[in-house]
Amino acid sequence: MKIMMIAGEVSGDVHGAGLIRCLARNNDNLDFYGIGGLKMLRENFRPYYMLDTLQTHGLVEVISHLPRLYKTLWRMRNALDEERPDVLILIDYPGFNLKLAAYAKEKGIPVIFFNSPQIWAWRKGRLKTIKRVIDKMIVLFPFEERIYQQAGVDVSWVGHPLLDQKIDEKDNRAFLEQYGLLDDLPILAIAPGSRPSEIRKHLPTLLKSLPLIQEEVGEINFIIPVAESLDINEVKEIIEPVNVKVTLIREQFLETIQACDAAVVASGTASLQTGLALKPFAIVYQVSQITFWIARYLANTRFIGLVNILAGKEIVPELLQNDFNSKKVAETGIRLLQDKDYRENMISELEKTRSMLGDQGAYEKAARCIENKFS
């Protein structure tokens, strides 16, 4: 059985690898191919392209990447014709994936979408397209299931895969020892994003805030998780001029967050991981001003952070655009580390949002949905 999969983000690579593992565990002779990342490759995925072929940053900024994106889209359309997969599994990345889904639908190839586009946040008009071209929608949040049920889309809520990610105390201590962090100093994690464009946009501002934080807090450990998708040498070049000690952590985001006392995190899946770990944190993000204006105009929610969207209020501060500057990052970081009442209240609110996400075993449940739909 052939299964084409398309993942366009680092989080999609994680999801893709999890789905492949669970599907392969229950079925023999499955051939997975398409677009993915290194984690999917480790599960015997056959790549036409690596996911960095699809990665962009911002609405307006994507324009310069359109020739490359459409060239990739046309190649994957040809791959549908050439290999005739039994099913096409799409993981988030709706701008590209819904176009490919429409072509697959024309060819009679069943289409499953894992991790819904954020139609509840913006571009709700995509719901009509989804109903037309998607045979099965698998969602991670309970409110998404209600939206699709009301629209007449075949949908299943499986819970969020991040609920399965845990680090025990022994592993946490080994991590701290590995990076020389067992000195009882506070630890602040700085997570600027997993895309190269996010690193270039966010990291310089974050680094400027570190001396301000250290001046107020005193001795402190700053740690930066570096995603597998990033060039660590480029990250080292960016941090080289900074006159505070910064420890780079390669490919261990969950361990980094579990070890820290507080964090400043770029918006995205990483912010939800931080919330589920019950760590006080702030969300940051910056794009071009015109991209921000367009997004705000189209948005159906006041927040961009998933924990705030789940809570229906701001429980975690969001420093966006002009509010994302070294002074405000420093003020927020200091408060996250030192204001005991603020920290305790945030952790209490994060516990409430975690309880909204269902039970463990999301990938296994998703695999059963896929098997039941097309067995």
Indicate the CATH topology of the largest domain: Rossmann fold
Query: What percent of residues are in strands?
Result: 15-25%
Can you count the helices?
16
Helix content: 40-55%
Main-sheet strand order equals 3-2-1-4-5-6-7
Mean pLDDT: 88
The helix/strand series, from N terminus to C terminus, equals: EHEHEHEHEHEHEHEHEHEHEHEHHEHHH
Number of strands: 13
* Low-pLDDT windows of residues: none
* Level-2 CATH architecture of the largest domain: 3-Layer(aba) Sandwich
Folded structure, characterized:
The chain is α/β, with parallel strands linked by helices and 375 residues long. The chain folds into two domains: 2-160 and 358-374, Rossmann fold; 169-357, 3-Layer(aba) Sandwich (Rossmann fold), CATH 3.40.50.2000. The protein has 16 helices and 13 strands. The protein has helices at residues 10-26, 38-41, 66-83, 94-106, 126-133, 142-151, 169-178, 196-217, 232-239, 253-259, 269-276, 289-298, 306-311, 326-338, 340-354, 362-374; strands at 2-7, 31-36, 46-50, 87-91, 111-114, 136-139, 155-157, 187-191, 221-226, 246-250, 262-266, 281-285, 318-320. The strands form two sheets. It has a seven-stranded parallel β-sheet, with helices on both faces. The chain has a six-stranded parallel β-sheet with strand order 10-9-8-11-12-13, with helices on both faces. β11, α11 (269-276) and β12 form a beta-alpha-beta unit. The longest helix is centred in the middle third of the chain and has 22 residues, at 196-217. The termini are close together. The model has no long low-confidence stretch (mean pLDDT 88).
